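User: Can you help me understand a structure? I only have the sequence.
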Amino acid sequence: MKKDAFSRCPGPTRVSLTKTRGPFGVIWMASTEKGLCGIHLGEDVEMLKKKLSSRKECVFREDPQGNTDAVHQLSQYFQGKRRSFETELDLWGTQFEISVWRSLIEIPYGKTKSYGEVAASLGMPKAARAVGGAASRNLVPIVVPCHRLVRGDGGLGGFSSGIAMKKSLLELERRFGEA
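Assistant: Let's start by predicting it. Here is the structure, written out as C-alpha cells:
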C-alpha cells in the first residue's frame, strides 16, 4: 500500500464500480476518490453494493474505466507478476478490524497463518475467533489477503467467495511462488 488510508469514513460516499475479468471469472471493483474500497469475485454486483452499503451510505455508478491502477495490479497478481499491492485503499472498519487487516497484509505471498497466530501477533492470543470475524468483514479480498488465513489445524476455514475460491487462490500463489 502506498499510504495508510484505512478509515471509518462517515457520511454518503460516491462509489465507482468497475467490472473486470480474472482467471476465475468476473470481478467487480469498487473505488472512492480515496482508493479501492471493495472487491467482489463473481457476477453479482448487488452483493458488493449490499456489503458496502451495510457500512455506510453510498451512491453507486458504473465506470468501465475506473481505478485502472487497481485493475492492472490485480491482473498482474493473477499472472504471478505481483505479490503485494500498492494501490490506494479506502477501507471501512473498526479499530480492531483495521489492525487485523494490516496484519493480513503482512502475511507473505504463498504463505498462510492461522487465526490464532494472527491473534497472538496482535497481543490477543485468545482472540482467534474475533480475528476470523474481522477477516470475514474484509471488503477487499486478495488485496487484503484474508484467503491466507487458515484454521489452527491447517484446515482452510472460511472465505467470503467460498472455500473453492480460497483453495484456488492459495494454489495460484503456491504455483507462482515456486516459479
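Now, to help you interpret it: The domain at 13-78 is CATH 3.30.160.70 (Double Stranded RNA Binding Domain). The radius of gyration is 15 Å. Let me know which part you'd like to focus on.
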